[in-house]
Design brief:
338 residues; alpha/beta; Quinone Oxidoreductase, Chain A, domain 1; Rossmann fold; 2 domains; 7-stranded mixed sheet; 6-stranded parallel sheet; 10 helices; 17 strands; 28% helix; globular; binds nicotinamide-adenine-dinucleotide; binds zinc ion
Length: 338
């Protein structure tokens, strides 16, 4: 099978022929149809974060395909089922986090395309319990971006506990942000989109943003203060300064939801203690979402409540695709079709 492989951190991916993997006990073999390119895959290939993946590995955690083979003991999936392979590739199922509905915090978790091989290949093995069924009405093309960009921003909106009519900043209108704008609208928020590219802001407006701010030309905190300040700011860009700007755009009682994961070399974000305390600000970290969150994301899409904006690419063009994402030359998401 063809696979895009990271052979050393920071080098271009190599397209190579690999043996089709065998599903072990409790696993399924998935014949991939689509896979989205998440900015996380780029961080993985570059070794941007404190915990680094070990080459060689296959990135990809927005994989959608059909079950081609069952490993020993698998009874909850059948050959032919269409499933999604998300970032949460495996969790233990019995620790306090897993039991409490926070499987995304499990200390035993495996992450697709990071600690285990992911979906940038014609086939991937995945844990049968952690793949998520894709409803017939959701195309494999749309299901791919929903599998990470969708579930992650849907969860961020949930943990922000947004009330209808609250003012919500979405900072970074890329793969994640274009869906965040829509989920914020669905819970009744007034939405302010922030990016550094006008084309992204235009897309945000088409998707329902009430206001847009170009952070490359305008101080977003000042512009948002003029609108009355934000109740919630969701930081999605891979730039620590944008987190600080998102924080500074909050009004009293505001919540900063941290989702973007800038490279460690960009340094930490710096938050003022005084304003955090006196203004009663909450700072919330949010990591992807659960299988149940993803099922809800698919259901919303099935109901026609969300629109996925994406472009098709071939896996052979993976390095050019990465360059395009880094340069902002994409509408919102790139999806590889196999
Ligand atoms: P993307 O490249 O598709 O989008 C990033 C957007 O941010 C682009 O539109 C870019 O123009 C914009 N941007 C860049 N600098 C900015 C700034 N200073 N202010 C405002 N906007 C700015 O990336 P993506 O796939 O949407 O991922 C975004 C980040 O989220 C990445 O760091 C990724 O690793 C992370 N991520 C986190 C989770 C999680 O669970 N917490 C899940 C998926 C992705
Ligand atoms: Zn992702
Ligand atoms: Zn667990």
């Amino acid at each position: 099978m063809k696979a895009a492989v990271v052979t050393s951190l920071g080098s271009p991916l190599e397209i190579m022929e690999r043996d089709v993997p065998e599903p072990g006990p409790g696993q399924v073999l998935v014949h991939m149809e689509t896979s989205g390119l998440c900015h996380t895959d780029i961080h993985a290939a570059h070794g941007d974060w404190p915990v680094k993946p070990t080459p060689p590995f296959v990135p990809g955690h927005e994989g959608v395909g059909r079950v081609a083979k069952l490993g020993a003991g698998v009874t909850n999936r059948s050959v032919g089922d269409r499933v999604a392979i998300a970032w949460l590739g495996y969790a233990c199922g019995h620790c306090d986090h897993c039991i409490a509905g926070w499987e995304t915090l499990c200390e035993q978790q495996h992450n697709s395309g990071y600690s285990i091989d992911g979906s940038f290949a014609e086939y991937a093995v995945a844990d049968a319990t952690y793949v998520v069924p894709v409803p017939d009405a959701v195309s494999s093309f749309d299901a791919a971006p929903l599998t990470c960009a969708g579930v992650t921003t849907y969860k961020a909106i949930k943990v922000a506990r947004i009330k209808p009519s609250e003012r919500v900043v979405v900072s970074g209108i890329g793969g994640l942000g274009h869906l965040a704008v829509q989920y914020a609208r669905l819970v009744g928020a007034e939405v302010i989109a922030v990016d550094i590219l006008d084309e992204k802001l235009q897309l945000a407006q088409e998707l329902g943003a009430d206001h847009v701010v170009n952070a490359a030309t305008t101080d977003p905190a000042a512009a948002i203060a003029e609108l009355g300040g934000a109740d919630v700011a969701i930081a999605l860009a891979a730039d620590p300064r944008s987190f600080e700007q998102a924080f500074a755009s909050l009004r009293r009682g505001g919540r900063l939801v941290c989702v973007g994961l800038p490279p460690e070399s960009d340094g930490p974000m710096s938050l003022p203690i005084f304003q955090t305390v006196l203004f009663g600000i909450s700072v919330i970290g949010s990591i992807v979402g659960t299988r149940q969150d993803l099922a809800e994301v698919f259901r919303l899409h099935e109901l026609g409540r969300t629109r996925v904006v994406a472009e098709r690419r071939k896996i052979d063009e993976v390095n050019a695709a990465i360059d395009d994402v880094l340069a902002g030359r994409t509408s919102a998401r790139l999806v590889f079709e196999y």
